[in-house]
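Give me the fold.
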Amino acid sequence: VMEYKSGNVFILISKLSLRRYIITNILTATIIGGIINSMPVILYLIRIIIKKGVNGASAFSSAWPVYLLPEMYEEQPLAYAFMLLSAIFVCGAVFSLLSLGVAAIFNQIYLAIILPEIYYIGSAVAFGSNIRFKCFDATTLYVLNNNPQPDLIVSIMYAGCLSLIGIILFVIGVYKNVE
């Protein structure tokens, strides 16, 4: 948003191509969003490993019943924790891409922050209690272990669709603002 308002976007596009500018922003938003979202979990996991050792990583999600790959949870708790960590990374990346797309379309930083949050909370309220539409609940992107019969493919497709929406919005917004 600040790049457009200050006019620096035209300097960046003149030094990079428009295609490289778009790809760079998409990759940056994806990586930064995923890292920021997963950093507290990484710190918590490091604390558990230091305190209880590698096998203590099973405390990572021992408060809930383990429905997704229970044998992996028992045999390789650290690998299981990293699998959950990757889901948290993906969720951060998805919502970062949505924010990037909203920012490019509306040129308002507050809307870029608020609209993805409203969608996240609204989808949990609208679809969270309905079993048939639970796959549209954005909170399921975080927790792979919340369903006795998890459908990992549906979660991956949902994350891909939300990411694609964010990327398309960003590309449209860039072309709209550059011209």
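Helices lie at 2-6, 8-15, 18-52, 70-75, 77-106, 109-127, 152-178.
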